[in-house]
Amino acid sequence: VQLQASGGGLVQAGGSLRLSCAASGIPFGGYVMGWFRQAPGKEREFVGSISYWSGSRQNYRDSVKGRFTISRDNAKNTVYLQMNSLEPWDTAVYYCAAGNRKDYSNSYYEAWYDYWGQGTLVTVSS
């Protein structure tokens, strides 16, 4: 199983980035995909998740609601994190994760996920 995150970089405050996470080795549509981030000196935290197959449900942490959007393309085995109105406090390494437990409501938790990508760095300058 491999999750390959990409799309990170340096952006000015107020700008946008789109992260991608390409999965292989799993039946992608049947997996919940999550995004987490870890800022320097801080613990990793939940950013958002998207439910199986159609992705009709998404969860987001409060601080990114209205700015970040998760989507998935099952044909491409890829999940996306569109980040708009970025702020310096969004600076972090962003990780994608995959899990297929039945209780989607618990997808906020790191332990819920079975597989993790390597992370991609997002730096937002003020």
Question: How far is the N terminus from the C terminus?
Answer: 37 Å
How many E strands? 11
Low-confidence stretches are none
User: How many helices?
Assistant: 0
**Global geometry:** globular
Oligomer: single chain
Q: Can you give the helix content as a percent range?
A: under 10%
Q: How does the helix and strand content classify structurally?
A: mainly beta
Whole-number average pLDDT?
A: 96
Task: Tell me about the largest β-sheet.
Answer: 7 strands, mixed
The percentage of residues in β strands lies in over 45%
Order of helical and strand elements = EEEEEEEEEEE
Quick take:
The chain is 0% helix and 48% strand. With 126 residues, the protein is mainly β.
Describe the structure using short key phrases.
7-stranded mixed beta sheet, mainly beta, 0% helix, single chain, 126 residues, 4-stranded antiparallel beta sheet
What does this structure look like?
- This protein has 126 residues and is mainly beta.
- Helices cover 0% and strands 48% of the residues.
- The protein contains no helices and eleven strands.
- It has strands at residues 2-6, 9-12, 17-24, 32-38, 45-50, 58-60, 68-73, 78-83, 92-99, 115-116, 120-125.
- The strands form two sheets. Strands 2, 4, 5, 6, 9, 10 and 11 form a seven-stranded mixed β-sheet that branches. A four-stranded antiparallel β-sheet has the order 1-3-8-7, with no helix packed on it.
- Strand 4 and strand 5 form a beta hairpin.
- The radius of gyration is 13 Å and the shape is globular.
- The termini are far apart.
- The model has no long low-confidence stretch (mean pLDDT 96).
